[in-house]
Recover the amino acids of this structure.
């Protein structure tokens, strides 16, 4: 606003002192008055000055400016620590609930394309997860578990596989127990040492080259893991050491059962997979860290059991539970399914949206606000790659993981992708500045791009938050204002030279009949047409 007032005052100063010729001063005052009206309208609509917004958003990054808030300098230490904690929480990576098998899927991709689908950062996070879930402090008391504790830290895949085989060989040693099966009997019990379930897990994940081979190894791991779980369950209250061992055995058993269900899903036994997932969620309802309900949602969508999908969403799409792209976009798919087969943009523009269509559009806007990268993959505007083993919520990695498994479900619903194509970009009109404020969720985190570049391979172009493009009218008005201000500055600095330039431009472009117009009579006619009170004579142009 200060800029506009300065321009207006400067224009009056020029008109009084006759620095500008009438051919230059007339359009300057005309566009200045109109731009004041536009600036007032923009301030009333968006709550900020247009000139200030353009300067902060577009000119400051070009000039290398930094936004320093002096009002928070007194609390800089507390503010920095809070912002760091918020950044860490926003950029927390999660285990991908639908991650693939390394040996049967990721390695096969490498053999065919010669590209590594997993980054070192992603595999390092997986190694940390394995050490957290599959090891405990008492592993050194059991030779096989001690070997596996070192195997999970190995970076070389072949070294890990060799260590798993070594752990299984140790468990093949038989030990004779000096306890008779029947009193006063000479028949002795021959026991085998409990087999190492984590060794079978490693071999199933990394050595098996097909899903069928991985399933066989996981079934062997289930036998060993179930026995260890039952033994530790009886001893868990005998001390902290036994409690930690029982917690480890619980994680191992849940992991094995979940991967067996995923093997069944990959091999086409979807109903069996659904049953295994439901049983697992009933047996261990508190282990929500594995996000087994997302596996269940995907399997139910494959069966087209939409009523069961809605029942799962009713339980997990709660305001108190963390959201994910699977939750938000599955809810949008169900609402779009009710109207997408008959939806037409032309008909909707004529008669307006019905209640069901409005609910579907709002669900799509909600999903897009949570993760804006998913629609480009669902609409096949960007190519898909294999999903990573870890994802960043609301980031490109989560979008890839969701679209990789759910694109087929959207294609199966007639008209769902068409409805998504017609409505998803409307989300950005609802949130003009998504990094500063959100509509249904927290503002979009600014750290997702950096974290996604660490999780995704280098040959993939990481998707960033779609930037809101300014309309052409605003760009045109800004350019015209800048040109007018530059013209006024040059006229003030070089009045004689600009007068010669204006005379030359007038002679070159203006018709001869327009050069002899009476400016005073012309402006008085305009004022009469617009019913504007006449201005003092001193403010009119002279011939």
């Amino acid at each position: 606003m200060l800029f506009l007032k300065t321009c207006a005052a400067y224009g009056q100063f020029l008109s009084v002192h006759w620095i500008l010729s009438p051919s230059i001063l007339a359009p300057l005052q005309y566009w200045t008055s109109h731009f004041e009206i536009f600036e007032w309208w923009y301030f009333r609509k968006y709550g900020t000055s247009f000139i200030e917004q353009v300067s902060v958003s577009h000119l400051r990054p070009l000039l290398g400016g930094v936004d320093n808030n002096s009002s928070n300098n007194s609390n800089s230490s507390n503010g920095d620590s809070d912002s760091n904690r918020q950044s860490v929480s926003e950029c927390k990576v999660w285990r991908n609930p639908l991650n693939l098998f390394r040996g049967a899927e990721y390695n096969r991709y490498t053999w065919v394309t010669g590209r590594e689908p997993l980054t070192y950062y992603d595999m390092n996070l997986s190694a940390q997860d394995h050490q957290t879930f599959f090891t405990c402090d008492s592993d050194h008391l059991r030779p096989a578990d001690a070997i596996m504790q070192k195997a999970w830290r190995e970076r070389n895949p072949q070294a890990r596989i060799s260590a798993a085989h070594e752990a299984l060989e140790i468990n093949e040693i038989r030990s004779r127990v000096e306890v008779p099966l029947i009193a006063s009997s000479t028949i002795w019990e021959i026991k085998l040492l409990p087999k190492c379930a984590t060794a079978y897990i490693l071999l199933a994940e990394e050595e098996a080259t097909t899903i069928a081979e991985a399933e066989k190894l996981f079934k062997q791991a289930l036998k060993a893991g179930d026995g260890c779980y039952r033994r530790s369950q009886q001893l868990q209250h005998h001390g902290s050491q036994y409690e930690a061992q029982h917690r480890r055995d619980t994680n191992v058993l849940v992991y094995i059962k979940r991967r067996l269900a995923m093997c069944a899903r990959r091999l086409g036994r979807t109903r069996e997979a659904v049953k295994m997932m439901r049983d697992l969620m009933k047996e261990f309802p508190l282990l929500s860290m594995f996000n087994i309900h997302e596996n269940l949602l995907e399997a139910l969508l494959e069966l087209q059991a939409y009523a069961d999908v809605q029942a799962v969403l009713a339980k997990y799409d709660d305001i108190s539970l963390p959201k994910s792209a699977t939750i938000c976009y599955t809810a949008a798919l169900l609402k779009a399914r009710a109207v997408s087969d008959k939806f037409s943009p032309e008909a909707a523009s004529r008669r307006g949206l019905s209640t069901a269509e409005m609910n579907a559009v709002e669900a799509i806007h909600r999903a897009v606000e949570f993760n804006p990268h998913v629609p480009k993959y669902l609409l096949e505007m960007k190519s898909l790659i294999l999903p990573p083993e870890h994802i960043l919520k609301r980031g490109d990695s989560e979008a890839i993981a969701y679209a990789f498994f759910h694109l087929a479900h959207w294609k199966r619903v007639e008209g769902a992708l068409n409805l998504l194509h017609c409505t998803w970009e409307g989300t950005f009109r609802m949130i003009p500045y998504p990094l500063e404020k959100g509509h249904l969720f927290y503002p979009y985190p600014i750290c997702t791009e950096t974290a996604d570049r660490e999780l995704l391979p280098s040959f993939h172009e990481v998707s960033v938050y779609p930037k809101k493009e300014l309309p052409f009218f605003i760009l045109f008005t800004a350019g015209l204002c800048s040109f007018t201000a530059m013209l006024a500055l040059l006229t003030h600095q070089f009045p004689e030279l600009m007068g010669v330039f204006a005379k030359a431009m007038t002679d070159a472009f203006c018709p001869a009949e327009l050069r002899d117009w009476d400016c005073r009579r012309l402006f008085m006619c305009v004022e009469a047409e617009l019913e504007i009170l006449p201005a003092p004579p001193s403010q009119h142009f002279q011939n």
Remarks:
- The mean pLDDT is 76.
